[in-house]
Amino acid sequence: MIYKVFLKFTIFAIILTGCSTKQSNTPKAPDFMLSDNYFGEIVEFDYNESIGDLLNSVYKYEGSGAGGDCSGFITLLNSKNDEIYFNPNELHKHMTSYRKSEGIYNLYAANKGIFYKDPKPGDLIFFYNTTSNTKNSKKKHITHIGVIRDVYKDGRVSFVHNTRGKNKIDFMNLNRKNVNKTGSITQNSYIVRCQRGDSRCLTSNKFAGYGRVAR
């Protein structure tokens, strides 16, 4: 069964905790709150039941600390949605370090599931060298992971990730690389702690690839 979500020129905000008792597989948009970042024409997609449930989970946990860290958040979404991202037993074989985000990336890479354009809501997004001990490394280490929330027609994407213990929305636009903001609209969020204005710390410059979720 296909559910179409038609989202154009809408304003999104971080969802409040709690969920409705009414059951539906159609993704539920969170409560609205004015923010310039959510202005824009969003690409519309058809969602099957599994993706609809996954996006509902993403909306539900926005603004909370669920998962504890970036890979913990993805693991939580995975466990709540019939292992839509990975089989934990299979993931174990791809762990080459203590970073679970890297293990997930390795699993997707091994299955030819890493790509660099045309993301869709629910897909994973990976970043490299986002920690204090890797941000200046010449070698690319996968250190962070999130999930795509919205795709805009101008090339921007919003994604939800756990950073500093909270699941929050940030942005990336590979068409406006090295640009943090245009006016009050965030094109690329800072994903590494560094001196303000250092474009090397923007999402566009730490992007390592998308991981396509099964559809």
From TrEMBL:
<keyword id="KW-0378">Hydrolase</keyword>
<dbReference type="GO" id="GO:0008234">
    <property type="term" value="F:cysteine-type peptidase activity"/>
</dbReference>
<dbReference type="Pfam" id="PF00877">
    <property type="entry name" value="NLPC_P60"/>
</dbReference>
<dbReference type="InterPro" id="IPR000064">
    <property type="entry name" value="NLP_P60_dom"/>
</dbReference>
<feature type="domain" description="NlpC/P60">
    <location>
        <begin position="58"/>
        <end position="179"/>
    </location>
</feature>
<keyword id="KW-0645">Protease</keyword>
<protein>
    <submittedName>
        <fullName>C40 family peptidase</fullName>
    </submittedName>
</protein>
<dbReference type="GO" id="GO:0006508">
    <property type="term" value="P:proteolysis"/>
</dbReference>
<keyword id="KW-0788">Thiol protease</keyword>
